[in-house]
Amino acid sequence: MSSPPSIDLSLTDWLVLAILCEEPRHGFAVARELEPASELGAIWTVRRPLVYRAIDHLVDLDLVEARSVEPGRQGPHRTVMAPTRSGRARVSRWLDQPVDHPRDVRTTLLAKLALRTRRGDVLTPLARAQLDRINGVRDGVEQKRRQSEGIDRLTMQWRVSANDAIASFLETVIADERSGR
After folding, report:
1. Within 10 A of 90 (CB to CB), how many other CB atoms are there?
2. CB 135, CB 169: distance < 8 Å
3. I need a labelling partner for 82 at 20 to 30 A (CA). Which of 23, 58, 104, 178 fits?
4. In whole angstroms, what is the distance from residue 51 CA to residue 31 CA?
5. Distances in Å between the alpha carbon of 137 and those of 97, 103, 132, 134, 171?
6. Where does a domain end: 43, 62, 94?
7. Any bridge partners for residue 68, and if so which?
8. Same domain, 127 and 72
9. pLDDT tens-digit readout, 123-144
10. 6 domain-assigned
11. What is the mean pLDDT of residues 39-49?
């Protein structure tokens, strides 16, 4: 039996799907979770029309489905959405995977750590996997820095320093979890 085809989802799609995995809800409630003043919205803000677009995309991919309809308080009825079994499985796998590029740490990795925290999952396995990946990237960039001159050397030094900051962050996440914070 072949594996299911790879589905390329945006960070918005993943966040909407993960929020729906926490509990079924309507699009307006999902959008509130991604407003600028919310915990997740501080990491990745998504405006309401894009939340509804993501829900439609996830429905098209059979990752979420309508579960019920609630009467609207002042407007139209609201459709309560929930993940499919496939949607739940994909979110679980996604939350376990480190990001490929250091530029994705600020958004995607931080979102994954936040979602894992909301689920009550431990952070250390993901943080360790990400630390291993970052250390490998840092070593390669450091080697290039040593061989560079001028502006290329400045750029490589910036990348080394950025990877050091990411490693420090991940080490703190691991230490905090170990100490029960």
Report:
1. 22
2. no
3. 104
4. 6
5. 16, 12, 9, 5, 16
6. 94
7. 80
8. no
9. 999 999 999 999 999 999 999 9
10. no
11. 97
* Same domain flag for 106 and 175: yes
Range of the domain at 66: 11-94
Can you read off the two tokens belonging to residue 13? 């799609």
Sheet containing 78-83, strands listed edge to edge, beginning at the edge strand earlier in sequence: 25-26, 78-83, 64-70
Please choose, from the candidates 10, 14, 2, 12, the residue with its C-alpha nearest in 3D space to the C-alpha of residue 90: 14
Tell me the per-residue pLDDT of 90-111, one tens digit each, with 9 for 90 and over: 999 999 999 999 999 999 999 9
| Structural domain count of the chain | 2
* pLDDT score of 55: 98
45: CB partners within 8 A, 6+ apart: 34, 35, 36
Residue 19 is predicted with a pLDDT of 98
Q: Of 94, 111, 146, which residue constitutes the final position of a domain?
A: 94
Question: Does position 147 have pLDDT exceeding 60, yes or no?
Answer: yes
Is residue 3 very low, low, confident or very high in pLDDT (cuts 50, 70, 90)?
very low
Burial of 108 from C-beta contacts in 10 A (0-12 / 13-18 / 19+) = buried
Q: Which tokens sit at 60?
A: 């098209």
Calpha distance 114→40 (Å, rounded): 7
Q: In the Cβ-directed half-sphere of 76, how many Cα atoms lie within 13 Å?
A: 6
